[in-house]
Every structure is written in C-alpha cells, then in structure tokens.
Write a structure and sequence with these properties.
mainly alpha, 2 domains
C-alpha cells in the first residue's frame, strides 16, 4: 500500500510538472491535473493539500537532485579544492538535458513564485556545501578569511541574482565586465591568490574554451 501511494504521488507530480511546463503554474488548474492523471479529487487531496503544495513538492524534488549532485562532488577529496568549487557550481546548471524544460518554465512570468523558491533553495543549499570546500582551502592555506560561510553567501547570492537573465538585463560587454569583477572581488573576499579563481569563467558558459587552453 505504501509503495502504491508513493507511485500515485509521483504520478501526480509528473503530471503537474508537465502541465506547469506547458501552461505555467497559474495557467494550470487542479482539474487539469486530475484529468491528466485520471484520478478523483479526493485522491489528489489525500496526497497534496493544494496546487501550491504540489509545486513545493516539485521544488523539493528538483533541489534534492541538484544539492545531492553538488554534495557528492564536494565530498570527493581526491579532486583539488579549486576544481571542486567549479564542479559544484556547474552541477547546479539546469540548462542541459531534461533540465532545459525546468529552466524554461520557471523563468516564465507566470511561474515567478516557483523561480523564487528555486533561488532560495540554491542560496540556502549550495552555500553550506561550498563553505565546506572553502574551509578545506583555508586549512591548505589557499584561502584566508575568518568568515567562510558569509563570503560564500555573498558570492552565491550575487551569482544567483545578477547572472540570472530574468533579474538584470545586460549586454555581452557588460556581462563580461561583471564576470571579471565577480572573480576579482571573489578572490579578495576569500583571501585567495590573484588569478587563482580565473577558471571560474567556466561557470559562465566558457567551459569548452577553458578546457582547450
């Protein structure tokens, strides 16, 4: 019975995910979800209290996937500190594969609440993961800061808002300037050697170029 209940819950989430992608959160009704899954209203409300409750469950599913991948990379001690930082951030990229659909529908105006919740998950979830790596870097004398968590919170929050296409409009030239400033100031916040974070450029879509150099 427990397995059947879990399968039914996932069916509802899968249907809602597809509908939100097609019609947006506001444009999708509970009737749409009922019809797509083929269940009674009572069954839906047995698993979820409301449409927003379904959205929250989807956010949880996305965040579990994202943060799980980031944590797995962060705890791999055989990977050098600087490379781990880059890999963790890159693991949060939803622009490829099945993640493309997620990105497209959370960036639609009608899905603003979902977008906001994803941002909250990233800021609150990725900051402590990256802080653990920074603390290792401090022990290895790669970084020097008495505030590793606060530094990463500032860096993650800035990256998650300024470099979000929905938040700040900028030309390619302005974006390049901000990336350079981001790296420059990030090194100083963390007390890192100048140029040590230059490969962070991978986070902004130039990974192939960096790997070829």
């Amino acid at each position: 019975m427990r397995k059947e209940a879990e399968e039914r819950r996932n069916e509802i989430l899968n249907a809602a995910d597809e509908l939100f992608a097609q019609k947006g959160f506001d444009g999708t009704s509970t009737n749409d979800i009922l019809e797509k899954v083929g269940i009674a209203r009572g069954t839906l409300y047995y698993h979820f209290k409301s449409k927003e409750d379904i959205m929250d469950a989807l956010i949880d599913r996305y965040s579990d996937h994202l943060l799980g991948a980031a944590l797995e990379i962060a705890t791999e001690k055989s990977i050098p500190v600087f490379e781990r930082i880059i890999r963790v951030v890159l693991s949060m990229n939803l622009s490829e594969g099945s993640g493309q659909e997620i990105m497209e529908h959370i960036h639609k105006p009608q899905n603003a609440l979902m977008h906001q919740k994803i941002q909250k998950v990233i800021i609150n979830g990725i900051t402590p993961i990256l802080t653990g790596i920074i603390q290792e870097g401090i022990e290895q004398e790669l970084f020097s800061t008495p505030y590793p968590y606060e530094c990463m919170e500032m860096i993650v929050t800035y990256a998650n808002t300024i470099f979000d296409d929905d938040m700040v409009e900028m030309t390619d030239e302005e974006r390049t300037s901000r990336v350079q400033a981001f790296i420059f100031n990030g090194e100083r916040l963390l007390g890192a050697k100048s140029g040590s974070l230059k490969n962070v450029i991978q986070m902004f879509g130039s990974e192939e170029k960096v790997n070829n150099e």
